[in-house]
Amino acid sequence: MKKVNYKLHSLIILKKLWASVTDLIPIIVVVVFFQTVVIQQPFPQIGEVIFGILLVIVGLMLFIEGLEMGLFPIGESMAFALAKKGSLFWLMVFSFLLGFSTTIAEPALIAVAKEASVISSGAGLIENNQETMETYAMGLRLTVAFSVGLAIVIGVLRILKGWPLHYLIIGGYVMVMLMTIIAPEEIIGLAYDAGGVTTSTITVPLVTALGVGLATVIKGRSPLLDGFGLIAFASLLPMIFVMAYGLFWF
Question: Mean pLDDT score of the chain, rounded to an integer?
Fold first, then answer.
């Protein structure tokens, strides 16, 4: 039976914890500076603050480790298997469902959709009752999730066909500008924010792994040149779709 080298494993864990600390140092310095120098007030509940920071450090380390051990490998392996299978239909279905399912579960999107429903009802844009607010929030989540699923399909087609990325991105932002002109002003800020909440903890790792995996296995494609760019589509299309959603509601 192979003997476990606990010392080596401990050093690896400490190294990864230190990497998490160095990632968080800038934001910690900013918060401490403004709290002590600008606001000139002591930290409220300093014990809980320190404990929370420690949890964030450990959580960040575990999250990154989970990405490297689980999400990135499985995303790349599934992309490889589907590409080898040679079925464009199933690759498109997988791409859409991957984008849809990861986005609908995004904690950031859930929080933004809930807050948007509260603000909209308070402003009189939608009826101020629980059912309407929940319907509005769920509709917003489904709209964003659908748009991300479609965005991933477009991104995968770009990798397969070798379409230039900048043409699609420029065309997409032209559509964003046109929608900004005709969409209700109450939805524009939310629509632009929707493009950001899709690029969060769940969506990015799997979508990135899908793109890199496809570009690696497809002949004539470069993982560096063609594998990235899916996240750009996932940020772009939600802005267009949420503004269209605003046209429906307002």
Answer: 86
